[in-house]
Amino acid sequence: MPSPNAPEALPHLDAVKAALTAAGLTVYVGGVPTSSGWAAPDKFAVLYPDPGMAVCESLADERTDFDSTMQVTCVGGDLERVMWVADRVRKAMAAAPLVVDGRVCWPPEDLGGPPVQRDDDVTPPLYFVPVQYRIRSTSA
Predict the structure, then answer these.
(1) Which of 79, 89, 122, 139 lies at a C-alpha separation of 20 to 30 Å from 107?
(2) Measuring CA to CA, how many Å separate 36 from each of 1, 6, 40, 70?
(3) How far is CA 66 from the centre of its chain?
(4) Domain-by-domain residue ranges, the chain?
């Protein structure tokens, strides 16, 4: 029988988005808008979540713990802007544990990312750096 405390991924995504938005960042999920007339701001973040895993909290096989990786791609019009976004993301994710109803969250674990890259396939070119975080919680 499934546990009534089985973890869900979407509230964790919402918590990360809320933390980044509270830090003053423009945040998109799963990509940027594709509607005509949309113009990229000079700096923003894009969340790419994975569905996570329900993990056993004990030998009783109650899968109430949650373990996930959340990629935050930091984007800016130049190197300074992309690093500004990365700094704001890091501060927002380190400020306090995420708030997810009915869950107790560990502080997000900064897993780092590759060096900053330039995307010349868009006009004007943008700089970006993906940073990954491990997101974990247990039932309250």
Answers:
(1) 79
(2) 48, 40, 12, 28
(3) 15
(4) 9-139
Strand runs labelled E in 10-121:
27-29, 43-49, 53-55, 65-76, 103-105, 109-112, 117-119
How big is the chain, counted in residues? 140
Neighbours of 134 (CB within 10 A): 14
Per-residue pLDDT reduced to its tens digit, 96-120 = 789 999 999 999 999 999 999 999 9
Q: DSSP string of 65-97?
A: EEEEEEEEEEEESSHHHHHHHHHHHHHHHHHS-
> What superfamily does domain 9-139 belong to in CATH?
Phage tail protein-like (3.30.2000.10)
Residue 109: which of 75, 57, 52, 70 has the closest Cα?
A: 70
The answer for residues whose C-beta is within 8 angstroms of residue 32's C-beta and 6 or more apart is 38, 40, 44, 46
